[in-house]
Amino acid sequence: TALHFVMQHIDFNRGDFEEQIREMVAKDLLTEQQAGSVDGDKIRQFFRSPLGARMMAAKKVSREVPFQIEIPCSELYPDMREKIYQGETVLLQGIIDCCFEEEDGMVLLDYKTDYVPEGRAEIIGNKYRIQIDCYARALEMLTGKKVKEKYIYLFSIGETLEY
User: Could you tell me the sign of the dihedral formed by the alpha carbons of 81, 87, 91, 92, in that order?
Assistant: First the structure.
């Protein structure tokens, strides 16, 4: 949560991430303990990545975007019998970590801090596939624009997963 908070509020054009984190502590936005759990080098590594560079160059960046959408039960729970649950929906709410707009559409970005065993990033990719698809659907409904690309950035290992 601390890293997500920092990524929501950081001025990525300023660059001095450790100083910005100290300012968040001075303003009582983060505790010392929370700030200590955020690695400025990992944030810097993200912004140096091709995806981070694209985000910084985007004409519009939105962070921590809340949403609520209704989804047919059968889409989330394929084992539900169609006849019994026909027309039933689930209210899904969440917060999109980041999205940005490029000339040809929206890019969805979710940050993860999960532990990832070396060489096993696909575990995280599979674990969050449905979430990313739902977030993309919500973003399209919110903006009326096509989500052209979907990513998860794994802060623990500095890798980007594309969906």
Answer: positive
